[in-house]
Structure formats: structure tokens, C-alpha cells
Amino acid sequence: MAKRTPEGPPPPPAVQKLRVRYARRGRLRFSSTRDFARALERALRRSGVPMAYSAGFHPHPKISYANGAPTGMASEAEFFEISVTEQLDPEQVRSALDDALPDGIDILDVVEAAPGALADRLEASRWQMVFHDIESGELEQVVQAFLAADTVEVSRMFKRGRKSFDARQPVLGARVEAGEDPRCAILTVVVRHTTPAVRPDDVLTALSLVASFAPPRPPLVTRLAQGRWDETTAEIIDPFDG
Amino acid sequence: MAPTLVGMPGESHFAALEPLLERVTKPIQYVGGELNSTVKDWNCGGYGPKGDERTVRWALMYPDAYEVGLPNQGVMILYEVLNEQPDALAERTYAVWPDMEVLMRERGVPQLSVDGHRAVRDFDVLGISFSTELGYTNMLTALDLAGIPLHAADRGEDDPLVVMGGHASFNPEPVADFIDAAIVGDGEEAVLGATELIGEWKAEGRPGGRREVLRRLAETGGVYVPAFYEVDYLPDGRIQRVAPAETGVPWRVGKHTVMELDEWPYPKAPLVPLAESVHERMSVEIFRGCTRGCRFCQAGMITRPVRERSITGIGEMVEQGLQASGFEEVGLLSLSSADHSEIADLTKGLADRYEGTNTGLSLPSTRVDAFNIDLANELTRNGRRSGLTFAPEGGSERIRKVINKMVSEDDLIRTVAAAYGAGWRQVKLYFMCGLPTETDEDVLQIAELAKRVIETGREVAGHNDIRCTVSIGGFVPKPHTPFQWAAQLSAEDTDARLHKLREAIRADKKVGRSIGFRYHDGKPGIVEGLLSRGDRRLGRVIEQVWRDGARFDGWSEHFSYERWMSAAERALEGTGVDVAWYTTRERGESEVLPWDHIDSGLDKEWLWQDWLDALDETEVEDCRWTPCFDCGVCPQMGTDIEIGPTGKTLLPLTVLGSGKQTMVREQAARGA
Ligand code: SF4
């Protein structure tokens, strides 16, 4: 007997590609990128977005994810792309999808994809780290010591074992401010995306290496922005601009 | 360390939990906020005439990890049913993993609900649903973390009532020390009854304290309160009698039975977790009960009579559930789904309705016949045909007569031939080892069967790329079944028999490589058997093993047989009974069984007769299709079995995906 193949017509083709920016807030910062992917596929079905599917026995909706923030960190600037089989109004998609997702995963912005790959528009991130029970003066000193170094080697476990890499060079800038509460300090860093990516926890490791810095509690981390890096203005450009 | 958090009752403790989340595996399981979850106002029920609060608050626990507990239908149904009541609220709580337990003890964070992160101790009732006895130690962890005394006798007015439900409550005796009450049978109507009663008592200003509210519950005849019963033992260790020790309390406690499933279309809005769970789909229960009368099957016996949901009722639930959840797969749930009287129309109707929407349909059915394969084919019209499962349960024709699984070897071969012929490449066969009267020969016959399956499969498929997996586990005799008197096979004998079977399967190299062999060793079965047919004397064993570190006994990586045996030896010292007495001992007709005062609707005389028939290798028919054999359930319920056919069909209509109308550009433009 011959092997079975799917019957019927092939799935309808994609006619439009949409780019989506979303935030992961509050307690939902503990969701992983896989958790998000599952939730998104379900939300797309609930809201009725006419997704384009791959062919075969196990059709998959065409979604591509870009550079998700690590589990446990909040974000105001996460991105993905979907392909759909009809021309849709991006704002309608935004509100329908936002309604279909749990509170704390909030769809901020949907645009029609401009040419080129989304990943090419994500060159750097701005991260905010809020430290409790640390004074800004103390943090400032540590950060200055870090900035003064040329390289700071850190290591972290990857799927294929422990790897060492430099956590200093990719850091394009760092600023310390006092929080509203005097016992609270806020560090903002801009990091260029490299391989492996330097994450806020790597920066933290680097701080502890240059100045034996050990915060009593891990900081609350939020990605504030992600986009192209403009050397001249030293700013992150919104990936949906231009 | 005892929980140290202070605050208003019903307050969220998320701020205390949050720092721990950074340090545990899979923190998402503790944060709640799932789609379709609810957090209600702590005082949604308002106040009684004298200002006494009347809100009845349930913490519902599934005593296993979140990933297992979240998809549990029972808890999901009760959660929704209770939250629909204006003056009740329900939140969920699950067993925390050992890494979290350590941190919670260190920081004094108590057991919390996942919804509002409210302290479990703040609720009026902690309802725990046990599908298996292996969750008992997790209950003790939760009580301890919650700051609720382990022993019901030590609880005070501020402690919740600890109420158990689920299949294990058909013999609640082993946990009699720890629970305040047990609700037996279907929960949805029963929790509403209990809620009303507790609400009234609260509004009256809690007269008589917890003893009084428990008494009122017990007087209904449908709630078992172990403290109101006394157990006497004979000198040889058997039970002499179990009798009420309180006036107004019934001798026997009846099970609850919801007769009209169509009136209870729950869950309407299934919970959708962010975290990965063991069932990545929604389920619709298409009927309750089973009449096939397999003698080993507790689920089939205790859920009688059969009550079907109508084809149109099922259609609505599927549609509503998909809309509310976005799941890509629907399971049509029941004990033996192919037995629904309109299953063919139902599967065809659903397959038509959801054609082209990338919605998967699944039907848990292990019936060994060609019809079952037709159904499976219908459900996979355009999908991959990977595996089909059949459950002959016993290896030889003789043993299948003993267990009343009426499948001949030729039936089985015909069925698998049809499956391979339809393009299915993998067939899974379920068996049990250690059935009453079983010998090595009965089990070794499984190897012969598997070989014939492969040979037949290769022939009809025309190629060798087919597989058969034999999955086998030890049989555990359960209360309220004809095998409740049977001796359980010891762990050593079970393992020895399984070993011989594996050798026999491997012996034939030519077919052996196409046969997979999966088995569960006999040790966990002995602990399950101990707890299933145990009595109140086991409370000390459970407490001891928990103090020795037992947690998550349903997980092989956490389960320790040695820990259980050593705890049992110490805790049962001086009682004259031991693990073997509870497990491998055959009981006699006149013995008082620890669960005799829990009424499952089945006549004990009928069960005994069925046990004798089993030993005689006499089969009984399915009462769904042939005349009643008087098990006792139907007359007692004052009904007949509730089945169709209704003669209705499903219209090929779905609103799934209709949301796109608002998004499509032309329409949006026209509307503007
Ligand atoms: S068919 Fe047999 S094993 Fe299956 S649920 Fe019914 S009685 Fe139990």
C-alpha cells in the first residue's frame, strides 16, 4: 500500500506580512519564549486572524520570532512577524490579538512589513535594571570601573556547555540614576547584539567581577527598546521607522 | 519554620512570592493569570442579617504538579461552576516542586492559590481532588505549608475544612486522619449543595463552630465525615464494624450522580495555561460511566450508570470551547468513547464542521474492533496516521474471560489488520500483569499475540515499516470492583513475569525488532494497592513516609519503594497487620471491607457473584446493549441508563475564524 499524502488543495498563499511589537509585563515576565509561542498561536486562532499555513500533514502557521528576552525579564520591545492570507488592517489585528492574549502580554503595535529581514533591524537593546537596597552612588562607582575596563570576560551555561565571552565591548553605554526611593538605583545599559548575545545577567556578572559587587536581591530587568543602532546620534532607532 | 506572613485575610502575597520565582525551575507555573481564569472580590457574597460574612471560598487543589493538575477536568469544572455563583469564589492551588518548597519554608511563604496568590489557610474550604492515591503525600505538604494542622482533630475555627473528592474518595479511610470530609461521586452538583449549606452557617454567625457545619454536611447523607464514625477491629486485624458515633449521621454515605449531562456543559471556557501542560488540548466529556463491566476497572464500576451528552450538546461545547480557548485540538473524552450511541454521526459531523480550520480531533478509545478504526480514520481524514491504541488487557483468551474483556484473539488480529491496512503504522497494545488466577502462560501469550500482529501487519501493509508496542503494567485490585477481594501479585512476582515476557518477545529476532516493550515495574503498584484497599491504620504510614521525605509519589524519579516499606514497617508495628496483609492477601466474603460504608450504588452481593463468575471464567454482557444484569445502580438512582440516540446531526457550521471579518481591509474601509 502506498504511503498516504494529504488530500485536497494546497493551503492558500500568504498575501501580506505583518510585524508586531508587544510587551511582556508584570508576572508574565516569567513566561518563556516557548510559552509565548503557544499562547500566540492560540490567540491567533481565537481572534480569527487568517493565518498562512505551511503545507503537509502537520501544517504550521507562518510565524517568525525574533530575539526574545530571557525568561524572568520584562520587555516593552519584543517582536514577531506573521504571514496572512488576506489583506488586513493592522490596527484591527492589533486590538483583536491584544484581546485574545492574557493580560500582561500586550500587543503594542502592528505594521505592514517593510522590505528586508526584521532581524536586520534589531541591532541593539536598551535594558533597564532596577536595584533595591543599593544606593546610586555605590552602583555608579561599580559601573565606572566596568566602563574603564577594555574587556571583561564572563561565562555562562549554554545548551552545549559553558562558554566564555567578553561582556564589555558590546556595551555601548551605561547610565546610573537614583530611583524615587533613595534605597533604589536604576542602571540603564545599551547593548549591541552580538553572538553570543550579552544579556543583562552577563552585565551583572561583569559588574561583580570588576568590583566585587553583590546586590542583596536580583534587579528587576526590563527591555525598554530594541532596534537599529545609529552610530552618529548614539541612539536606538525604532525598527518600524523607515 | 511556620508561615510568618501576616496580613488581611484574602490579601495577595505575590510580593513575597516574587523573589522566590527568580530562583526556581519553571516559575510560570506559580504566577496564574491563565486565559479564562478568575479572581473574584473576597467579599463577593456580602453579609448576613447580623453583619456576618456569607461568601463561601474554595481553594481547589489538584495534588500534583501544575502541568498535570491544570488540565484536570474535574477541577476545571468545579472552578467554573463555583465562580459562577454570585456568593462563592474558587481559586486553584497545586503541589509545589521541592525546590520551591525549600524556599517557601526558608522565607515563611505559605501555600498560595495561583489565581490571587491568597493564602490557602484564608479560604473556608480546601477541596482536594484525588484521581490517584499517590497524591496523598502531596496533600500533607500543602497542608503543612499552608499552616493547617495535618490532623483534622487538631484544626481550629480559623482553619479551612479539608474536603476530598475524586475517585480515591470511594475509599477515603487511609486519609481519614487528615480530611474533615469526603464527597463521593460527581462533584458539580455536590459542591453547590455544600456551598449553600456552608454559606447559611456562616451567615448565621457560625453556630456550633466547625463541628456543627460538618454535622450539617454529614446529615445530608452525601458527605462523609470520618470523625463521626468509629472503627472496631477483630483480634486478627480485620475490621469488626464501622459505625456512626454521632446521632443523625447515616450508616452509609451515598455517591452523587448528575443525571442530565446536558444541563452541565462545563467547562464552558477552558483554562489555557501559558506553561506547557500534559494535555495541550481542550476536552469535552461525551458521556460518563461505562457498562462494559471489565472486572478490574474501578472507573467503570463507580461511575455507573451511563449518562450521555447529546450530539448537539457536544457540538455546542466544542464550538464554544474552541472560541474561548483557541486550542488546536479537541479530545472527545469518556471512559470508552467509541461507545457513545451517536459516535459515528458525531465524529463525521465534527470532522465536516472543522474541515480546513486546522483543528485536530481525538477520541480516546481502545476498543478492539473495526468500528473503532473507522472512527479513527474519520478523525484523521487529512492528518497523519501515526498510532492507534487497543486494550485487550489480558494476554490469553482464558484470562480475558476472567476479567470480562470479551475479545477473541481472531477479533484482535482482524482489527489490527484493518488498522495497518488503513495506513496506520503503529499499533499500541495495553495489557495487565498480575490479574486474578493468572499464570506465566497467560502472560507469555502476549508475546505470541504480538508476533501475529506484526506478521499480519507486514502482510496487509505490504512493507516492513510497521510497529507494535506492548505496554504492560501491574494490576492493582480496587475497591468497589469484583476484584476487591483478590490477592495482588507481589512486586517480585510481577517483575519476574514481566522479565519472562520480555525474553519471549526478544527471542524471535525477525519480528522482535518491530515490537516495542514498555512496562512498569511492580513496586509502585504495591504502594498504590496498599493505599487503595487500606484502612484508617494507614494514616500513620502516610504521615511517616511524608516525614521521611516522600513527595510526588506518582513520579518515578521521586518515588521510593524502600522509603514506603520502611515507613510502613515502623508505623504498623504492634497492629498485627503489614503491607502484605493489605496487598497480597485474598479477602473472604464475610470480611468487612474498609469502604463498605461508602455506597457506590453497586450491591456487594452482586459484586461477590461477579467475583465468583470471574473465577469460573464466566462473562457478563454489556448492559448498555443487552438486558440488565442487576448490578444495583439503576434501581437505586431511580432511572435507566441515559443514552441516545437523539437522531439529531450536526450542521456544518462554525464561527471559528469569523473574527477575521473585522480585520479584512476592504470591509474595514467600507465600514468606515
Ligand atoms: S471498557 Fe472496561 S476498562 Fe474501559 S472503562 Fe469500560 S469497564 Fe473500564
Automatic annotation (TrEMBL), chain A:
It holds the Pfam family DUF2344. Residues 17-200 form the DUF2344 domain. It comes from the Bacteria. NCBIfam families: sam_1_link_chp. This is Radical SAM-linked protein. It comes from Marihabitans asiaticum.
From TrEMBL, chain B:
GO terms for molecular function: catalytic activity; iron-sulfur cluster binding. It holds the Pfam family Radical_SAM. Residues 276-518 form the Radical SAM core domain. SMART domains: Elp3. SUPFAM superfamilies: Radical SAM enzymes. InterPro entries: CHP03960_rSAM (IPR023862), Elp3/MiaA/NifB-like_rSAM (IPR006638), Radical_SAM_N2 (IPR045784), rSAM (IPR007197), rSAM_horseshoe (IPR023404), rSAM_sf (IPR058240). This is Radical SAM family uncharacterized protein.
